[in-house]
Write a structure and sequence with these properties.
There is one protein chain. This protein has two domains: 76 residues; 94 residues, Orthogonal Bundle (Cd81 Antigen, Extracellular Domain, Chain: A), CATH 1.10.1450. It is elongated. It contains seven helices and two strands. By secondary structure, it is mostly helical. The protein starts with 9 loop residues before the first helix and ends with a helix. It has a two-stranded antiparallel ribbon. It is a multi-pass membrane protein.
Length: 225
């Protein structure tokens, strides 16, 4: 699903294209590696080694970009989510998948808005209904299980109006929730990344070893004059 124009972000688009490219390269690389190993083709094994090295370098570079550009990425995410919340409309079929994805984030992380529930005060539908409705996925009650992308009615609003402080929603913003989740699962994330890097290094070592063995066999088969 492609986000609408106002949701676009050059950095996020670049990151998506890089991931797509790496995925396609990985599939091609695996095929070439198997073909080269089975048929003992040195050039394919060399290409397999090169692809693995390129992927490993790309992963390291992506990690460095994320680390050193994290504040910029955070600002862009704030802008993207802010536009999403402002234009959130359950009747808009074009953005339904994107809105459901955001509902899922709010429900699973137990958060509301990007910095807090106050972000939803900018939503046009909520404003038109005098703040007497709120996103169901933000709810801290049983209504929070309703992830069909809609608003819940506030019980007994005073004089037909309300503020976000009157909503039965989670107080934590999703930005803090995501950061907390990353910190809590940092060990798992680093472990997975390290495991992938080790497997890639082993693949590079094995491909070089096979190339050397093939070269040695070819050399011994050469008739001596």
């Amino acid at each position: 699903l492609l986000a609408p124009t106002e949701m676009s972000s050059p950095s996020l688009k670049t990151g998506a294209y890089i991931l797509i490219g790496v995925g396609a390269l990985t599939m091609l690389m695996g095929f070439l590696g198997c073909l080269g190993a089975v048929n003992e083709i040195r050039c394919l094994l060399g290409l397999y080694f090169t692809c693995l090295m390129v992927i490993l370098i790309t992963q390291v570079a992506a990690g460095l970009v994320i680390y050193f550009q994290k504040e910029r990425l955070k600002d862009e995410l704030s802008r993207i989510v802010g536009n999403l919340i402002k234009n959130y409309d359950p009747s808009n079929d074009d953005e339904r998948n994107l809105q459901h994805a955001w509902d899922y984030v709010q429900h699973e992380i137990a958060c509301c808005g990007w910095t807090g529930a106050k972000d939803w005060e900018n939503n046009e539908i909520i404003i038109n209904k005098s703040m007497t409705v709120y996103p169901c996925s933000c709810s801290n009650s049983s209504k929070g299980s309703e992830l069909d992308g809609r608003f819940c009615d506030l019980d007994d609003p005073i004089n037909g109006t309300a503020t976000y402080a009157d909503w039965p929603v989670h107080e934590q913003g999703c930005m803090d929730g995501v950061e907390k989740w990353l910190k809590d699962n940092l060990g798992v994330i680093l472990g997975v990344c390290t495991g992938v890097a080790v497997i890639e290094l082993l693949g590079m070592i094995l491909s070089i070893s096979l190339c050397k063995n093939i070269h040695s066999e070819d050399y011994t088969k050469v008739p001596k004059s």
